[in-house]
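#struct-pred

JT: dropping the chains for the assembly here, can someone run the whole complex?
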Amino acid sequence: MAGLTLTEKILARHAGKSSVEPGDNIWVDVDILMTHDVCGPGTIGIFHQNFGRQARVWDKDRLVIIPDHYIFTADKMANRNVDVLREFAREQDLPHYYDVGSERYKGVCHIALPEEGHTRPGEILLGTDSHTCTAGAFGEFATGVGNTDAGFVMGTGKTWLKVPPTLRFVFHGEMPPYLMAKDLILAVIGDIGCDGATYQSMEFDGEGVYALNIEERMTLCNMAIEAGGKNGIIAADQKTIDFVRSRDKAAKPFTVEKSDPDARFVREYVYDVRTLRPVVAKPHSPDNRAYVDECKGTRLDRAYIGSCTGGKMTDFRAAARILAGKQVKIDTFVVPATTEVARTLKTEKLNGHTLEEIFLNAGAKIGEASCAACLGGPSDTFGRLNQAIRCISTTNRNFPGRMGHKQAEVYLASPLTVAASALTGLITDPREFLA
Amino acid sequence: MKLERIIQGRAYVLGDNVDTDQIIPAQHLTLNPAIPEEYRQFGRHALSGVPPAQGGLPKGHVPFHANDTDLVSGYQILVGGRNFGCGSSREHAPIALDAAGIKAVVAEFYARIFFRNSVNGGYIVPVETGERLCEKVCTGDELRLDLEACTAENLTTGEKYNLRPLGEVVPILEAGGLFPFARAQGMLPS
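RK: done, full complex below.
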């Protein structure tokens, strides 16, 4: 019998089987279900409709509700949706609800999940958001689902999955200081296309990946969906275990696994990170790859640093290295992913200044922790592209209209490249500002 | 919606990588599809994120709704290219198409979550074809899909096309979605 990939092992164990093969349809037990303010109300509606108005969720310890999308808006419908979550959390007495306007409010769900100890190696995490795949960085199977699937899990704790074949992406070499995980994943998506991993698992491996910190690994896995991937995954190592143990107050046990040496991968892609250059995805698709040196000088109207893929401390440290002591030339929006990141921006210092001071002194505007303009949202959303302007952004998706106006042009890039471009108002190679 | 063997209607043609932000732009996700009146409202906003030049191919600039305030479109079948429904996991996407009166989408292949959501909720039938229909069918053509024979006929031009079998999702579509299917299978109490 051939060996199993990491994804196959996790799925087999959750189906009570010793082995599975790509293409098998299996029923699995779900460890954690996450929902938010955009898909939560619909999911709750489906749960009530199918299990009854008085039904209880299958396991309140395993349901995590994190409002994060449309929070700081006057939109009444958006506010109503948060009320629906709050009422449901009260009725069901949910311990893991992170309410807006409370001390517990977190911000972007994909970053809040690990911060609050809801990600563990070897588990299955489903979320009503396509970027749920971010949590694959913890060596677990994590994928996005719709309201109906989530409503079903809410009542039963189970879902059916088709076992995906696995693509392996191996990164060798030590990362140069001008590259970030965003450059690696944009290079991969450029190579395989925004449908290149449809219905497949993307496993990231190699010493270049294990040298990355946890947040950078999250950026890699976050964008698996931009290639159509079912999940992105990185086997847990000591860094993962240390992070998870430091965050999980309940200290739940977990299973650390990796792909067998004789596991079957559909295809393997090998990269030497030392030879890569800073990358952007041009409008209007994450696979529209260009190297920064091929499009440098492109005039910009706005820079945006935020989101699950670009609003973590690693991202802001990188941006601060470039922005410290300088002035931005275009409107620059900084949005911490979570309230924890926002608090750290006020305390962590670079050359005697907090990161928050560095951004404000550079002329950037800082918003409140949330998804904000990454996906457009209501018209009063912080940083939203309300006109047909050109923006360079650390976010993860640039299909037409994604950040607001459907004729706006969005370039995706690393926080280093976005910060360097903010200083010139033109797409700029970060190497120009890194001594 | 239960699975119908024959689906006939006017086609609205789109290109490749029609993502969920084009199908239902994010500012409309404040509507809650669990509330019937709000579900209907999604129909009005369906495909409102498609850049005008890419809406209603081959010419483009063909509105999906006759009037901006219409909830239901005059088209019943969407034709797309590769990777239809990519992007977010929002179930609001197939819901918006259903609310706008779309019965089926015919595309080369689908993004995984969109396909699953379409089937799970029984909103629309996502049909695959090995042919590049988005370059053969014109917006406004009358199509007749035969899901059992796996063929499509263009009643406007007389052309015939092959469709791929729906395969393992047929029982879920026939039941009307994931919940009725699970009840019929005894996985949930009926």
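JT: nice. Chain A touches chain B through 52 residues (CB under 8 Å). Chain A is about 30% helix and 15% strand.
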